[in-house]
Amino acid sequence: MYYEQHLTQADIAREIGYSRPSVSRLLNRAREQGIVQVTISHPLEHILSVEKRLRERLPLKAVRVAEVNGTDVIGAVGQAAAELLVDSVANGQVVAVGNGRSIQAAAQRIPQIPRVDCTIVQLLGSIPGGLPSWGRDAPTICTRIASQLGAKVSRMPVPLIVDDPSLLRPLMREEKVATTLALAARADVALVGVAGVEAKGAGNILAEYLTPDVREAIRAGGAVGHILDHHYDAYGNPVPTPLTPRTLALPLDELRRIPLVIGAAGGEDKVEAIVGAVRGGILSALATDYQTALSILDML
Fold it and tell me: How far is residue 123's CA from residue 294's CA, in Å, rounded to a whole number?
């Protein structure tokens, strides 16, 4: 009567001649004995439940889980990241931004919502080759986000990976680069992508750099993922590779000190990378899709 006819406990009590507290006890007993089973059927309730479980199991300040309609996981993750970023950024703050497909998707989905006196700053150098035209490169993404939020933008016209390690330190000491990275280190919020250790598919910027010595360093160090193209292990500890002294990006230790670092990622191949980054304190917030969120919970 309570579940099928939607009568109140008071209505049932009058109908069967019991007191309302007695009806309440009978209903509780029916649930405990499995006579009545309550299931959540609305997708939003499932998502809110998963978000709550992630916050309980991992040291996350904020979580946004997206439902995927069709097969566009990156679009769904981008939407979740865009919503979380907009909700997190206040007037006068500095937002540091990485690169990648999920970050690009987020930038494309941020609505025009002005944030007064905000600055969008680049966290790492530019991708070599043709990828900037695809919109995945940090300068392009920063410009897009700044446009939508009515913010200033701070960029640095330097490569992400230099050919010779001896070039990195002098390059990082150049005024434009040094001031941009210093501003990024003082950011209030950061938005970064999360990658697994295997570079797959056209357009993955590390694919051409995964030489045998780099792969061996990744394996030997137990790396599970990379953020800003810095590799790390299951506890968030840096894993040096031959690429490390050639990579122009904010170090992970400095990224950790940013009050809110939002990681945007989805896919089974990124579960270990996500968990390692959160456990290691690299990420403090997460935007992902529902299936990836379930896989994360299964791993914990």
Answer: 30
Instruction: Give dist(CA 73, CA 50) in Å, integer.
Output: 17
CA distance 99 to 221: 24
Same domain, residue pair 32 and 47: no
Q: What is the pLDDT of residues 82-140, one digit of tens each?
A: 999 999 999 999 999 999 899 999 999 999 999 999 999 999 998 765 444 445 788 88
Do the Cβ atoms of 209 and 243 come closer than 8 Å? yes
pTM assigned to the model: 0.83
In total, how many domains does the chain have? 2
What is the domain-level CATH number for residue 17?
1.10.10.10
The beta strand positions in 47-139, using DSSP E, are 62-66, 94-97, 119-122
Residue-wise pLDDT for 228-250, tens only, equals: 999 999 999 999 999 999 999 99
CATH number for the domain harbouring residue 182:
3.40.50.1360
Cα gap 58→282, rounded to integer Å:
12
